[in-house]
Design goal:
32% helix; alpha/beta; 9 helices; 11 strands; 6-stranded mixed beta sheet; 5-stranded antiparallel beta sheet; 22% strand
Length: 363
């Protein structure tokens, strides 16, 4: 009997202890849940969203000849009710304007319109009356502290600096350098650019994008459109939709999506000073001799390679002045543009949506 009573007592005691532990665990869970709820509430009321300013647009150049790029861009963005700023032709002026006109609301979208030649420096100055923007010249201006710093209140990490240029996104080093120019202390804006050409003022769309295809020849020494069409067809065998000879002879988009050709001229200026050199200044009689000489001089060859145009596609001349050898090259670039059109539905251009990662790259 006593043993039974002891067993019953032990079981009752064990049940009592289990009940105590269970109630403690439940209490802890309730407390943790209450703390979690409090933390969740604090997160939702932590900070109000910052209201960003309406988009602004910098028109960074003036049209020359028959071009209407800048005028058409100005009209396009005014129709969107964006604030348009004219007369700012350098990175220095753009940043200064942003600083001088900063408010409690940071900039949301900063559009920069620049009609650049992808084979040359940008048509945008680093500082007022300074060098044109390249990776090297812009980095130099940053290192020498010639550019103003963007005010911290002017931008956020959500600010977008959108470049409406030609194939700028293909130059990753330049895009990264542009990004560093617009950093404000610990706030880093996003740089948005496209690998396509930006076209403003088209007959069928005020703004559209076009894919470029290139063929080169030494200026004033064209082999003719027939040979050029064969060369470009060989260069881009995957492109089956373009009739190259027709495209090279077409100067405008006559129907939506029709390929057409624009032309660039790319100069190269090379110089060697023989003042303190034991070598004689070379003399050349043929183009091939000049090209062979450039190929043998590492620094000169690097300057040509920066253009991404083959050495033999330049027309070369030279002069000797005092102790300096000056070599000049000029290449003509025929650029076939194929406007981007929708692959379905009515024939129309693809909308240049800067949030579309297939059209624009974001750094």
């Amino acid at each position: 009997m006593k043993q039974n009573i002891l067993k019953v007592g032990s079981v009752m005691g064990l049940l009592l202890l289990i009940g105590v532990f269970t109630s403690c665990n439940n209490a802890k869970k309730e407390n943790n849940q209450e703390l979690g709820n409090i933390a969740s509430i604090e997160e939702t009321i932590e900070k109000p969203a910052v209201e960003l300013r309406k988009p602004i647009v910098f028109i960074t150049g003036n049209d020359k000849g028959n071009s209407h790029f800048y005028d058409s861009a100005r009209v396009f963005f005014k129709q969107k009710n964006y604030e348009v700023i004219n007369g700012k032709y350098s990175v220095e002026e753009i940043i200064s304007w942003m600083n001088e006109n900063a408010t409690k609301n940071p900039y949301g979208e900063v559009h920069i319109v620049n009609n650049n030649n992808p084979f040359k420096a940008m048509a945008l100055e680093t500082v007022v009356n300074g060098e044109k923007v390249t990776t090297e010249t812009l980095q130099k201006a940053i290192n020498e502290k010639k550019l103003p710093l963007v005010k911290t209140e002017a931008i956020t990490d959500d600010t977008k600096i959108i470049f409406h240029s030609n194939q700028l996104a293909a130059n990753t080093n330049l895009v990264n350098t542009l990004k560093s120019a617009f950093i404000a202390e610990n706030k880093v804006p996003q740089i948005v650019a496209s690998t396509y050409y930006n076209v403003f003022g088209g007959e069928f769309s005020n703004h559209y994008l076009a894919k470029p295809y290139y063929v080169f020849y030494p200026t004033a020494n064209s082999p003719g459109k027939v040979d050029l069409s064969k060369e470009i067809a060989k260069k881009y065998p995957e492109e089956k939709e373009i009739v190259w000879f027709d495209a090279l002879n077409n100067e405008r988009e006559r129907y939506i999506g029709e390929p057409y050709t624009i032309q660039h001229t790319v100069p190269v200026n090379l110089e060697l000073d023989y003042h303190n050199s034991d070598n004689e200044i070379p003399q050349f009689e043929m183009q091939e001799e000049i090209m062979d000489f450039i190929a043998s001089e590492e620094d000169l060859l690097k300057e040509v390679q920066k253009t991404n145009i083959p050495l033999e596609k330049f027309r070369w001349t030279y002069v000797v002045k005092n102790s300096k050898l000056k070599i000049k090259g000029r290449s003509s670039v025929l650029c076939v543009l194929k406007p981007l059109t929708k692959p379905y539905g009515d024939l129309e251009h693809v909308k240049p949506d800067t949030n579309n990662k297939r059209l624009y790259a974001m750094k």
